Amino acid sequence: MLRVAWRSLTAHRLRTFLTTLAILLGVAMICGTYVLSDQIDSGFKDIFTNAYKGIDVTVTRKAKFSGEMTGATAGLPESMVAQVKAVNGVADAYGYVAGTGAVAVDGKVASTGGSPTLFFSYAPGDVSNATYVQGGHPAAPGQVSIIQKLAKDKNLGIGSKIDVITPGGSETVTVSGIFTFGAESSLGGSILIDTTLADAQRWFDMKGSVSTIDAKAEAGVSPDTLAGRVRTALPAYADVKTGTQAATDQTKQISDAIGGFLRPVLLSFGGIAVLVGAFIIFNAFSMTVAQRRREFAMLRALGASRRQVLGVVTGEALVMGILASVLGILVGLAIAAGILRLFAAANIDIPHSGLVLAPRTIVVALAVGIVVTLLSAVVPATRATRVPPMAALQEGASLPPSRFARFTRYIAIVVAILGALAIAAGMYGPGNTTSRLGTIALGAVFLFVAVAMVSRYIIRPLAGVLGWPLQRVSPVSGRLARDNSRRNPGRTAATASALMIGLGVVVFVAVFAQGLKTSFIDSFDRVVRADFIVQGKNFLPLPSDTAGKVQGAVGVQTAAAVQAQQAQIGGKTTAIYAVDPVAFQQVWKFDWLKGGTDAVLAKLGTDGVLVEEQTASTLGTGVGKTVTLTTVDGKQAKLKVVGVYRDPIMLNGVIMTDAAYQSIFTKPQLFMVFATTGTGASVSETQASLKAALATVPTADVQTAQEYKDGIVKQVNQLLNLLYGLLAMSVIISVFGIVNTLVLAVFERTREIGLTRAIGMSRTQVRATVRYESVITSIIGAIMGIVVGVVFAWVVTTRFAGQGITFSIPGVQLVVFLIVGVIVGIIAAILPARRAAKIDILEAIHYE
Amino acid sequence: MSDNVDTTTIVNKEGAAPATCEAGTTVGLEDAVVQARGVERDYGQGDALVRALAGVDIDLQRGAYTAIMGPSGSGKSTLMHILAGLDKPTAGNVWIDGLEITTLKERALTQLRRDKIGFIFQTFNLLPTLTAAENITLPLTIAGRKGDAAWVDELIKTVGLGDRLTHKPSELSGGQQQRVAVARALASRPAVLFADEPTGNLDSRTGEEVLQLLRQSRDKLGQTIVMVTHDAHAATYADRIVFLKDGAIAHDCGRLGRDDVYEVIKSLEDA
Q: What are the distances in angstroms from CA A579 to CA A54, A584, A598, A661, A671?
């Protein structure tokens, strides 16, 4: 029986190929995602293992939590180095200061494609893996050595002058040496700067402290033993780890950050592609099984049991699934390699190792490909078993309805309800973000399936309406196309549904993003009174004296600085902002809740805070309540909530005075400066004078309010385009699906087409018929996708309405998507139309 | 194995049935491999009720080549479908090799089709993706049996397809395809072989080849054959011709010559 299945596959190669392709691409995307993230993980692992090679024990200050905005911690006292050295078994120990900042050459900041610029202070006896290719380590204050990549990019050599920009300000230094790290000329795209201890302490406000103390063990002493000894020798706030442990921890931290974001996103796109593929396989199998009705009947007449017939069809599905999985793995490897190449082309240097094809990846790819193909083919396969032996003697190519055909309507309703429940559970229910997103995704899948099941009832009227203009334009071809697409509503529905899924997600993303953009602009216009916004490039903090420089620029009336930090309140990491209430009121209009007024600003003092509405609800606090704040160093402060304001987008967190900030956090961290222009000063002149005033701060970005808004919108659009690109894969798969369906339909109607040609229909008309039918089907798919996408976006937006996201329909884009639907239909029809036109009349009429 | 029934007849020129044909039915044969009693088959309901078979009793003898003929609408195809277990009668019973088949469940019917029944169709119904040889052994593959290699070889020799065995149906002529179908039907040595208009899609010469093949299988291999046909020439190959009209057996004749067959049919149509 397997032979029957195999032969049937090889006899119709194009059909098999197109059907397999549907699931192959989805598997490839999933496999590619795993391979890519594994390669990146492995790349980082290499880096950190390298970084900690030779370091047996490393000591840092315990951090209560990790956050991107926490900046440098208080560090460890310099005196601790001697303490560590004194521990039994330590061969040598040294301390260094580490921090992030930026480097500018000739007034332009060296860009790193998003990776940080890292500063380390040099210590004698340092066992780091820096190998000098030119010159040597910084010997005196004012000297730095740089990593080779920076030297190459900016054409620097020994003696070159560069500017280092740190929280301490901007300073010009001289290059004393150029090094490589391990075998890399850069560290995952990061720029590394080696400095003297004194300079680093000054720049990062760590006088008398170091960030880390590294120690080497004497021969015969294991790192674990030494770590234990050092731990006992040091106070509790010192975090002691072995070098290997630190490497593992840091690798995990990055891998969680990347994996937590990159992998789920890419996997969901792969999931969408797989779902589209499932629809296509279901459709393809339904059609081929119907066409082979007589064959199955004959097998039954010869004594094949129902199970054997099921085995034939399932066998075909199994072979296709295996083929799709295996090829999908290969294509997935290519995808991963391609993405890395794209990154490199965009100058984003993501660390990655060579090919990593983990067993888990292979198993998942095989499982997905095989299981999805089998599941999709199960219903058509079962219907094949219900073909009675009598059918061998009859004409016609339609299957007996499945046992549950009568209940389709009700099953669809049940599935839709399950889907809605799942989505509601994901949106309003408990659980962490990942599991909730997963539940929402599952609910969405159910809804798509339910819509597909029900769509057959709207096909007739919808195709009638869409086909009407075609019929007017082309009385013969248009009419035939219109009738053909209504003939088998189930088949048209399944084909259109494949397109619906891809476009549905695209539309959802577009509408949701439109809402984001609109609400951001609305929110901005409502609260921001400033004319200018100064921010650090790449979200770097600005030097503390920037606010003063801004205030001093000609034309500026008020400059208000905003500091930003992260702290934990009630166990949740929260954004903390610090302002001078008087100046801030000039640039910001508070949107108070519950009858609050600007008067509460006077009540802030050193222990009062304002809390944003969403933050307040997350933390479970309100006006009059007290909250306990914990810094990353573990310091605690009790604060009183004096007001609640609404601003879910820009300053969503806790606002305190600069005085309060200073008493709680050790280091200032300037985030943005708002500025208003004085009356009589022109905006463009003020902008020019601002830029001049900040010429010594190359990391400062000066934007007008409008430019700032446009910038955010542009970023959202860039992200959108990336998402569209990923979703385009699903649309392409559904195009293959339409092609497959049409090819099968043409095959099925061979005799019919032959007859119409025999009575005078031209080849052109035949092609046109196929093309029109394709366009009708794809427009139906596009309409369904747009409706589903808009509705889904509306539901989700309503859920987040509290966070300020509005529902806004991007009309122009929807029209574009509709046009895309038409184009998809035209392209998909090319191959089947040619086949239809090539049909030989005589052969066709005698076709059995 | 039974003797060859070979009777010549003299036709009554006034149109009455030839002497060897009885007006009733032949039942109560010894060694009847297929038996039917009171078989009725209705389609539709109420005003649209169509009575395809109106109570048929018949026995088919083992080792005999029986033809079933009749004008269109006589119910001959319906009768064959029911005798072969492809269709269930509205009333009545059918036995194949002593086993009552109208109440059999699907699984038992499947078993029956594997072991006891062989089919030849008008439209050949070969699997287009298998070679001739694979099509012939298909019933055995389905049953999971290896079959008798010697038997299959002999079949292939008898059927005369030696050099075309590796060809697919699309590469064979109509006559060759039907011969493959015959070989396939005989491969599992069924108790009875049902043929539905086997020469319907063939020209006279190739039809001849197939008919001779069927006759040979009856003569040399003792195969029981039941053939529905409207082709008078084909019917002359049979040992016994049963004529149906309006859902009932009109005549049950022995071997007839072609002109006699025409006469009987004419008499059926005139009446």
A: 45, 6, 14, 9, 11
Residue B10 CA to residue B20 CA, distance in Å, equals 9
By Cβ distance, the residue of B86, B125, B127 closest to A4 is B127
Of A302, A306, A848, the CB nearest to B142: A302
Q: What residue has token string 């987008």? A: A649
A750-758 and A705-748 are packed helices; what angle lies between their axes, rounded to 10 degrees? 80
Nearest CA among A51, A119, A111, A123 for reference residue A84: A123
Cβ–Cβ below 8 Å for A305 and B107: yes
Instruction: Please give the share of chain B, as a percent, with pLDDT higher than 90.
Output: 24
Per-residue model confidence as pLDDT tens digits over B29-61: 668 899 999 999 998 888 888 889 998 999 998
**Gap from B67 CA to chain A (nearest CA, Å):** 19
Q: Which ipTM did the prediction report?
A: 0.76
Residue A395's DSSP bridge partners are none
C-alpha–C-alpha distance, residues A630 and A568, integer Å: 5
φ, ψ of residue A346 to 5 degrees: the values are: -85, 10
* Contacts A4 to B, Cβ<8 Å: 127, 129-130
**What are the structural domains of chain B?**
63-86+104-270 (3.40.50.300)
**Interval A728-755: pLDDT, tens:** 888 888 888 888 888 888 888 888 888 7
Judging contacts by C-beta atoms under 8 Å, the chain A residues touching residue B188 are 303
C-alpha–C-alpha distance, residues A163 and A102, integer Å = 8
pLDDT at A113: 65
For an interface test with B, the pick among A291, A306, A393 (most B C-beta atoms closer than 10 Å) comes out as A393
Q: Which of A164, A170, A176, A168 is nearest to A140 (CA)?
A: A176
Name the residue among A298, A303, A392 with its Cβ closest to that of B143: A303
Q: Which 3 state secondary structure label does DSSP give A730?
A: helix
Would you say A565 and A661 are in contact if contact means Cβ atoms under 8 Å apart?
A: yes
Query: Of A11, A301, A388, which is closest to B119 when you measure between CB atoms?
Result: A301
0.95 exceeded by the pTM? no
User: Best residue in B113, B135, B166, B171 to probe A by mutation, most A CBs within 10 Å?
Assistant: B113
User: What is the CB neighbour count within 10 angstroms for residue A29?
Assistant: 26
